[in-house]
Amino acid sequence: MNTTHKTSSPGFIGGVILILLGVLFFATNWLQVSVAGPLFVIAFGAMFFVGMVLGGKNVGGLAIPGSMFVMLGLILFAQSVLEHYESWAYAWTLFAVTGVGIGLVIFSWWSDKPQLKRPGYTLILIGVILFFVFGAFFEMLFGLFDSNISGSFVLPLALIALGVLMLFGRFIHWQQFIEQLPPHNERQV
User: What is the pLDDT of residue 141?
Assistant: First the structure.
C-alpha cells in the first residue's frame, strides 16, 4: 500500500483553496467589517506562494507578484478597518515598490540567487522612504485626514529618523550591513 501523498495533487490544492475560502468567510463574519475584498486579494497573493512552493526553486519569481498582492490586500484591509481610503495617495508606494522588494528578497532566498538580495532590500527601503515622504506631504500640507496622525509624535519622529539616516548614512558600510540581513541562502529543501 502506497502511503505517500503528493502535495501537488488536485485534491490537495483544492482542499487548501476550500479551507482558505472558509477561513476568509468566517473572518468576514466574525470581524463585522467589510473586509472580504481585501482578504480575497491576500488569498490571491498567497496562491502565488503556493505555486512557488509546489513548483520548486525554478519558479521563485512567483514571490514577486505574490508579495505585491499580499501587500495590496494588507493595505486595503487596513483602509477598510480604519476607513481611511484617502491614504491610497501615498500607500501605493508600499504596494508597487516595497512589495516588489519583499518579493525579490523571497525570490533570492527561495531560488538561491543572492544577487537579488541587495536590489530587494534597496526597493524595500525606497518604498518605505517614499511612503513616509508622500505621507508627510499629503498629511501635513493638504490635511487629507482628520485622524491627526501628522500632529502625533510618530510621523515627525519617522521623518527626523529618515533625515538623520540620509545625513549620516554615508558612514555606514551598507554592503556589509545588507550581507548580514536575511536570507543567508542556507535553507535546505
Answer: 65
